[in-house]
Amino acid sequence: MVGRIPVMNVTPLVDLGRQPAKATVGEPFPVTATVFREGHDQLAAEVVLTGPDGKRRPPVRMTPHATIPDRYEAWVTPDAGGAWSFEVMAWSDPLATWQHDAALKIPAGVDVDLMFLEAKLLLEKVVASLDPRDPSAADAAQVLQGAIDAATDAKRPAPARLAVLEAPDVTGVLATHPIRELVTVEGPYPAYADRPQALASSWYEFFPRSEGATKDPTTGKVVSGNFQTAAKRLDAVAAMGFDVVYLPPIHPIGEVNRKGPNNTLDPGPDDTGSPWAIGSKDGGHDAIHPDLGSFEDFDAFVAKAQSLGIEVALDLALQAAPDHPWVKTHPEWFTTRADGTIAYAENPPKKYQDIYPINFDNDPTGICQEVLRIVRLWMSHGVRIFRVDNPHTKPVAFWEWLLKEIRRTDPDVIFLAEAFTRPAMMRALGAVGFHQSYTYFTWRNAKWELEEYLRELSHESDHLMRPNFFVNTPDILHAYLQYGGPNAFKIRAAIAATGSPSWGVYAGYELFEHVAVRPGSEEYLDSEKYQIRIRDWDAADRDNRTLAPYLTRLNEIRRQHPALQLLRNVAIHWSDDENILVFSKRRVLPDGQDDTVIVVVNVDPHGARETTVHLDLAALGLTAGESFLVHDEITGEDWTWGEHNYVRLDPFHEPAHILSVRRPR
What we know:
By secondary structure, the protein is of the alpha/beta class. It is 28% helix and 24% strand. It is built from 16 helices and 32 strands. The strands form 8 sheets. An 8-stranded parallel beta sheet has the order 21-20-19-14-13-10-23-22. The chain has a 6-stranded antiparallel beta sheet with strand order 24-26-27-32-29-30, with helices on one face. Strands 2-9-8-4-5 form a 5-stranded mixed beta sheet. The longest helix is centred in the last third of the chain and has 21 residues, at 479-499. The radius of gyration is 30 Å and the shape is elongated.
């Protein structure tokens, strides 16, 4: 039933409160509610968090929304990992009612004595409620007694008595010690606080078989890299500031229907096939491709990464090559067509003849237990992050079960959903437990598209899914990168690294790899999905043909500015040019310091743009008319800015300003 003080439309709720809202340790999140009542008496509301330890945290007062009537909001912050809950508590506020009425009646000479008598009774009630164990109680009582004396001193003029009751020290005590009447509680509702890396991380993807691979100059045969040679690449990844290295599947690759270069159907005897065609006579998801090494080699690779401050993320691709052991031992796990053949994977017009998708309906218990076994196997080898391939092609109920099973025993394990699919499915996967999600960022390139998408991800779907802005993947080479030149690579990296707390690049991005297999395609020419790709990183560094220094600087800026490590703090600003994107992020740190970053990007990679940038100073924590210093974290330049600022951005010089606001101390 509706409470005495109605509290409605509480957010954040996921699936009507059946699933926990997303939270992160140390990350503030907003709780909002519609709160109202009959008549004209004042009300108040606050949010109370209850932690995994079962202890209630101090209440946080809700404030009215600036433009929406009866809408209240408070920001609360989990201080520990685990399952949390929150309640919205609303009450009739006799103190606020008196303050409102007194400010109108006493100056008008209406019910003056009655108003001061009511003040006396209310203040005495507050004094009686003070807890003597509270160190501040004595001071609060002294302040209130002075107010009571003023209220009852008929010799003073009424305006002077009212001025005492409206003094900041009195109103401060009353705000801290409210009188709550007709209390209504809505909730509790669930939230779950993950470790900070579930929100903020920098990913680098590479194929171990390509790193350290060699080509015989006589025969032309390519010799695969392995975990030992790939481990040597980790130093460069760490030097660029990435803290997650993501490996595509490392398992044996099927030989039946193996794909050749560029996804062809006629492989040669030395062609390696796609790592996502998992399983052969050498084993399945619980085995390592013989060319890559042994489990001991993998363990050494993980240990090397950890020594550099890097976590290893492993691909979890629930599908099988035609010669995967499952096809013989569990044929019921696949779909048999009318002609007796097993259906291979399709995503028209794409066909994956080398992959059999799993049918989860014939033996759901068997499949669930097998996947759980596989995940725990790799967890035992130091993997605490999984990038899940095509989760939208598996039942959502399966993911809900699996992720809860893992969270129950290992809440630090993170799952990233690679689901470029319908919004409802993407949000559902986030709702049932995926910690991060791939997004439509790759296809959002115009200023207006980026503005809309940043708003959506930071303020509309933030309780459901956390975005990871990958600038490219082995599957996705957007036309913007194909035809935008090196400038486009800088632009996309700058937006990804600052617009989302998690972002990622696929190896070769820093070398500006941009050639598609054919016009109109988003597939790379000589895609690394189907063949080993040998890159000369050292030569690129020597010849200055690399974006690595720029990526390094972006990751340095991310570490230096905590504001960039949050999602829900994006504010969109304005410019007079359709190609100049402007947004900011602000974070007030526990020590009271303010970290604010303004990002101005020319999204046109082909030409210089100049315009006026218009800032919402309130969103920056500044007052109207205030001027301030900004420091360009890319170029090192300093300027004095205000509400309106001239900007010229030439992508052939620097396409973006990443500006830290320097506040006077």
